[in-house]
């Protein structure tokens, strides 16, 4: 068995779907790895009226109210969440959470019930604050 293992690895130097050919002449090489300081990286603060996407799990079920703990905001503020798959939405309090803006969020049990999602689900949400609430 140990003698055949190296034979199984022949040709496994590139992951599936990765093009190892050089770029056409005149085009810069593209990297498959992105750095955390690229300009498309979220800033961590949701601008008024802007919508940002997050994935939320169940937060502390003992904490009452309609809220979303998220790294998308830096101070507690009113907001609205919309479930991407169903369009269901609810007004919530957005509560700052530690982590990068691309980290997940935590949604209250009451908000999950209002949105019609199960407590064990990971819910993809669009989050808005400010002018977009009217």
Could you explain how this protein is built, in words?
- This protein has helices at 5-8, 109-115, and strands at 51-58, 67-70, 77-83, 89-96, 105-107, 123-129.
- With 134 residues, the protein is mostly beta strands.
- Strands 1-5-2-4-3-6 form a six-stranded mixed β-barrel.
- The termini are far apart.
Describe what is shown at a glance.
The protein is mostly beta strands and 134 residues long. The chain is 8% helix and 28% strand. The chain has a six-stranded mixed barrel with strand order 1-5-2-4-3-6.
How would you spell out the order of helices and strands?
Answer: HEEEEEHE
What fold name stands as the CATH topology of the domain at 51-133? Barwin-like endoglucanases
Q: What CATH architecture label of the domain at 51-133 applies? A: Beta Barrel
Query: What structural class is derived from the secondary structure elements?
Result: mainly beta
Figure out the total of helices. 2
Q: In CATH, what is the class of the domain at 51-133?
A: Mainly Beta
Number-wise, the strands total 6
Amount of beta strand: 25-35%
| Uncertain ranges | 4-20, 27-43
Mean pLDDT: 76
Morphology call: globular
Question: What is the fourth-level CATH superfamily of the domain at 51-133?
Answer: RlpA-like domain
- Percent helix, as a range, is under 10%
Instruction: Give a quick account of the main beta sheet: strands, pairing sense, barrel closure.
Output: 6 strands, mixed, barrel
| Distance N to C terminus | 66 Å
Strand order of the largest sheet: 1-5-2-4-3-6
């Amino acid at each position: 068995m140990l003698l055949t293992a190296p034979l199984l690895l022949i040709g496994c130097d590139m992951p599936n779907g990765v093009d190892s050919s050089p770029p056409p002449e005149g085009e810069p090489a593209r990297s498959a790895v992105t750095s955390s300081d690229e300009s498309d990286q979220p800033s961590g603060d949701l601008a008024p009226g802007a919508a940002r996407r997050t994935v939320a799990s169940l937060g502390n079920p003992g904490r009452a109210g309609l809220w979303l703990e998220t790294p998308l905001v830096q101070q507690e503020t009113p907001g609205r969440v919309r479930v991407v798959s169903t369009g269901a939405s609810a007004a919530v309090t957005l509560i700052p959470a530690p982590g990068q803006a691309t980290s997940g969020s935590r949604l209250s049990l009451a908000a999950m019930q209002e949105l019609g999602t199960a407590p064990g689900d990971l819910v993809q949400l669009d989050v808005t604050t400010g002018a977009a609430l009217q």
